[in-house]
Design a protein that fits this description.
Shape: globular
Largest sheet: 8 strands, parallel, barrel
Radius of gyration: 19 Å
Helix content: 25-40%
Strand content: 15-25%
Strand order of the largest sheet: 3-4-5-6-7-8-11-12
CATH architecture: Alpha-Beta Barrel
Number of domains: 1
Number of strands: 12
CATH topology: TIM Barrel
Distance between the termini: 13 Å
Length: 342
């Protein structure tokens, strides 16, 4: 499968990554949706996409299980080798199992039976009723993710929206919790359960320092270095970026060398990879783009392709993730790069 030179990029100290990655966030908790994802993942792998992104809480663990099933099929068929695919998952949110609970009371019972009574965490370790970065909780999630995926190593493992904690605890408590989480992830990387780790965020890296949920990228890097030394395994951040959410490239939210700079600039200076999420804003940027944008990408034939190419055009960006639950979406999106070869 031929692709232009910029279709494959290097994530610092990790695998070569395709510029386009398949995300698995959206969709109902149904068998039919599982089957659509499996088919799309097989199509993506066969099309040259090698970044598959998921999370244990996506679709009540169904997304991870669909990824695992598709990978097993592809490996068994000899379509791709394990060392050719970059599998990414996340931990932090309480992961339901198969389908959502029918009531708040059922959810509370689920927490009691799976987390509190077994002694994984206490209710005080759970922020806003559904988020934790306690080491025992993360370890349980990581082990379950490996089981769901059918893998003995997850290539990149993210703390999922750690800024969620800042809505529930003060900065000192957050920093202490983050340290114990990073310590666990460094230990897991050293043991081989994960290849590297990072933070997958929504707001944290895009908002200014005076925002309650702000995350300092330089502080995250300093913490990883303090725990793991210069050879630490903190490698990547994930955040939204695109035509509708340009903050990572435009807004000076990160303090670096005595000044505020945009996230992309800070990540490049600190040697981190950047994975972009939500480039299509869940379908709102697949049509009716202005003519100025269309002129920038003359080889693209759809606005969805143009939105993806824009998000991937910044030098700091390693991979652009988009949800693809249909094989036709995979073919359309991959064609945004193939058109360049025509």
């Amino acid at each position: 499968m031929r692709h232009p030179a910029d279709f494959y990029r290097t994530v610092p100290r990790a695998l070569t990554a395709s510029a386009l990655g398949l995300g698995t966030y959206l969709g109902e908790c149904t068998d039919a949706e599982d089957d659509r994802y499996r088919k799309s993942i097989r199509e993506a792998l066969g099309s040259g996409i090698n970044v598959i992104d998921t999370a244990i809480n996506y679709r009540c663990q169904r997304s991870e299980r669909a990824v695992g099933s598709a990978l097993n099929e592809a490996f068994s068929a000899g379509e791709i080798r394990r060392d050719e695919v970059l599998v990414c998952s996340k931990g932090g949110y309480v992961a339901l199992d198969g389908e959502p609970p029918t009531s708040r009371e059922a959810y509370e019972t689920f927490l009691e039976e799976t987390l509190f009574v077994p002694g994984v965490i206490t209710s005080n370790d759970l922020a806003r009723g559904g988020h934790s970065i306690h080491p025992r909780f993360l370890m349980m999630q990581l082990e379950r993710s490996m089981e769901n995926l059918g893998l003995d190593c997850i290539d990149l493992y993210y703390l999922h929206n750690p800024e969620e904690q800042l809505l529930a605890v003060d900065q000192a408590t957050f920093r202490a919790r983050l340290r114990t989480a990073f310590e666990l992830l460094e230990e897991r990387a050293t043991s081989g359960s994960i290849g590297g780790y990072g933070c997958a965020t929504w707001l944290g890296l895009r908002v200014p320092p005076d925002n309650r949920q702000h995350l300092s990228l330089s502080d995250l890097v300093a913490l990883a270095r303090d725990i793991g030394g210069p050879g630490n395994h903190f490698r990547v951040v994930q955040l939204p970026f695109g035509l509708g959410m340009p903050e990572a490239a435009r807004n000076p939210t990160q303090r670096l060398g005595g000044k505020l700079v945009p996230l992309f600039e800070a990540a490049e200076a600190l040697g981190l990879g950047v994975v972009v999420s939500a480039p299509l804003m869940q379908g709102r940027l697949v049509a009716d783009l202005p003519d100025e944008v269309r002129e920038l990408f003359p080889t693209c034939t759809t606005d969805a392709q143009r939105s993806l190419r824009f998000a991937a055009s910044l030098p700091a960006v390693s991979t652009v993730l988009t949800g693809m639950r249909r094989t036709e979406h995979v073919r359309e999106n991959v064609a945004a790069w193939r058109q360049v070869m025509a």
